[in-house]
Amino acid sequence: MFGEMLENVRTKAPLVHNITNYVTVNDCANIVLACGGSPIMSDDASEVEEITAICGGLNINIGTLNEDTRRAMFAAGKKSNQCGHPVVLDPVAAGASRIRTETALRLLQKVRFAIIRGNVSEIKTLALGRGTTNGVDADIADTVTEENLDHAVAFLKAFAAKAGCVVAATGAIDIAADADRAYVIRNGHPMMSRVTGTGCMLSAMTAAYAAANPETPLEAAAAAIAAMGLCGERARNRLSARDGNATYRNYIIDEVYNLDGKTLEGGAKYEVR
Amino acid sequence: MFGEMLENVRTKAPLVHNITNYVTVNDCANIVLACGGSPIMSDDASEVEEITAICGGLNINIGTLNEDTRRAMFAAGKKSNQCGHPVVLDPVAAGASRIRTETALRLLQKVRFAIIRGNVSEIKTLALGRGTTNGVDADIADTVTEENLDHAVAFLKAFAAKAGCVVAATGAIDIAADADRAYVIRNGHPMMSRVTGTGCMLSAMTAAYAAANPETPLEAAAAAIAAMGLCGERARNRLSARDGNATYRNYIIDEVYNLDGKTLEGGAKYEVR
Amino acid sequence: MFGEMLENVRTKAPLVHNITNYVTVNDCANIVLACGGSPIMSDDASEVEEITAICGGLNINIGTLNEDTRRAMFAAGKKSNQCGHPVVLDPVAAGASRIRTETALRLLQKVRFAIIRGNVSEIKTLALGRGTTNGVDADIADTVTEENLDHAVAFLKAFAAKAGCVVAATGAIDIAADADRAYVIRNGHPMMSRVTGTGCMLSAMTAAYAAANPETPLEAAAAAIAAMGLCGERARNRLSARDGNATYRNYIIDEVYNLDGKTLEGGAKYEVR
């Protein structure tokens, strides 16, 4: 199943429109290329509707939002909805400022998302309408553990039902859920948190997976998450003693470039709840 | 000839002003440094005239244009013309939105360019005043092949005559032409299209070559194109089985850093038509 | 001493707010992660006060300033002062345009900085209220050498006394000074100047060191400078014949990731004057 999701990206090579932050935008473009998609970045309100119309999916990331890009997010989101394209939301640091929380909540009202992907603190902020974060990282109090996993799964399913889309909270344990089912995924490596933008990259790749698999957004999201985690593991194994987070970033993207469906099927560690 | 172009960059170390997109800007800066130039990025209308005046060349790339950076492009372009500096245009995704097409066409009216470099769909959009693109990649119907090469060369020469500058269309086969002569260049590797910004990087490097060789813009453009393609080949040869597009990006820039005139002369594959 | 500064960053993991340029922002984020901090980038005036309030330090870099980000710099700087957080200024290319010089000088009036770090031309521009630069690089006439070192140290101490903060001018020889003492640091490698953003990265890392060592800004700045230089040396030693400035960039960040206090103590080459 996950392997098929991946191979569909390589076969269909979807164009993915990204409205994203300027911190990790280059890595987002390269990971979309690595997984088999074709990225286009544009955040100017005067053109985003035309740009998104020629694409197969849209990724909205609020990492460095400002007044101009906010306008572009709403315009592109609505247009993408009209076109029937899957739209992914990455609510970076929602909860860390009023404007981030408000923008994310208003996007949920105005745009129909296929998938929301964030860390657990960001997702809680969207679900509860308020929240706290530790900057761009999840609040430690929110961490999903084996102990609170049942509760977290139920929470995500309930929010997915309310939001009417797939919701994914990623961290040490990843969960992707719709109203009825949740994939609990245990790939990845802690060192991924020392590379800026692994979450942003995952969201961009998720948009490519969703664009290539529009009928199965839950499986598309789960497959992208497992692929990213597996590539994080495999890249970690390539590191020598003197390599650090810069080489790790490159190797993660390299692994995504080389990953095939069979390897993903063999390496994905997940259960459905 | 190409070797001399390259060595002039290393000897003169020109300052190159870049108004470019935020997706690939870091790679553009590093490739200008790699080839021997010194990059400065600035896109604020309040300062671009001062900045461009202290440089030796200007690179205008419309990859993520917005209202503010458009103003800066016109202001810097005119000032650079007054200073007698070569100006390069990279019309990224012209044809993909009204504002991109219009901005590129208006730049052609208001600024005197030394070199225009894009993929063939972008160049056709400028020449015809309208066009279609596949996002940031060339439309497959526009691809230059051995079969339509004569036609493509004639088309570029005609547009170069009309535009009054060097025009370069890069892809599997690269062509750089002025009204009378065309360099047909067959360096490069298909995997370069899986790295974001190889076109942007080439335009930035072309501006460095043009700044160091202001009397011979056609040879400067052709040399930069051959150098980029040759470095793409050499970097490809360094890749191991687990390397992907991230490592490839780094190796391409590394090869540019280490390329000398003699190696470029030996490796450049071109003919003049 | 330097080792203790470094270990405090790893232990305290300070959140560092960066208002910085879009050219080198990704490298700045990754080097803050590499040294043990946690970066958050935000330059929208509507949220920077909230963002900076949850951080432990602020880094203001004027590399690609515009009207919007200028407003954010003043708002964040004042708020960070109210919070008692150390604020670092990187006056990139001050002297190269009126708006850069004016912005840097006004920031000095309105915001209380803990540390100013730039190349010697930028620092002279701030000290004298005017200046010349060679783009983003120091003017060759300003270079600190063994011959003019006494004069440079005295100049920096005087400016530090006037500005009421630590002032660091980095180049072939680095100097970090307050009114009374100056650290003269001789780490680093000339090839670092062929990587875009080594100065920006150092400023971001300096903010992390200052946030983790708020009582000793001079030692924090000197330790960060020595660490960056030492990592530049160590990364240079890892390069093979075909590596260039792209791989060098990655290795520098990798070395920062792996550097420990003991290695820094052993490798730092400095004297106090």
What is the 3D shape of chain A?
globular
What kind of sheet is the major sheet of chain A? 9 strands, mixed
What's the CATH class of chain A, please? Answer: Alpha Beta
Q: Please identify the structural class of chain A as seen in this structure.
A: alpha/beta
Unreliable runs of chain A, pLDDT <50, ≥5 residues?
none
Identify the CATH homologous superfamily of chain A. Ribokinase
SSE topology sketch:
The structure is a homotrimer of 273-residue chains.
Chain A: H1 2-12, E1 15-19, H2 25-35, E2 38-41, H3 48-53, E3 57-61, H4 67-83, E4 87-90, H5 98-110, E5 115-118, H6 120-128, H7 149-163, E6 166-169, E7 174-177, E8 182-185, H8 198-212, H9 217-238, H10 245-258, H11 261-267, E9 270-272
Parallel strand pairs in A: 1-2, 1-3, 3-4, 4-5, 5-6
Antiparallel strand pairs in A: 6-7, 7-8, 8-9
EC number (chains A, B, C): 2.7.1.50
Function (chains A, B, C): Catalyzes the phosphorylation of the hydroxyl group of 4-methyl-5-beta-hydroxyethylthiazole (THZ).
Catalytic activity (chains A, B, C): 5-(2-hydroxyethyl)-4-methylthiazole + ATP = 4-methyl-5-(2-phosphooxyethyl)-thiazole + ADP + H(+)
Structure description:
3 copies of one chain form a homotrimer. Chain A has helices spanning 2-12, 25-35, 48-53, 67-83, 98-110, 120-128, 149-163, 198-212, 217-238, 245-258, 261-267; strands at residues 15-19, 38-41, 57-61, 87-90, 115-118, 166-169, 174-177, 182-185, 270-272. The first copy, chain A, has 11 helices and 9 strands. In chain A, 51% of the residues lie in helices and 14% in strands. Chain A has a 9-stranded mixed sheet with strand order 2-1-3-4-5-6-7-8-9, sandwiched between helices. In chain A, strand 6 and strand 7 form a beta hairpin. The model of chain A has no long low-confidence stretch (mean pLDDT 96). Chain A has a single domain, classed as UDP-N-acetylmuramoyl-L-alanine:D-glutamate ligase (3-Layer(aba) Sandwich). The first copy, chain A, is an alpha/beta fold. Chains in contact: A-B, A-C, B-C. The interface between A and B is medium-sized, with 33 and 34 residues.
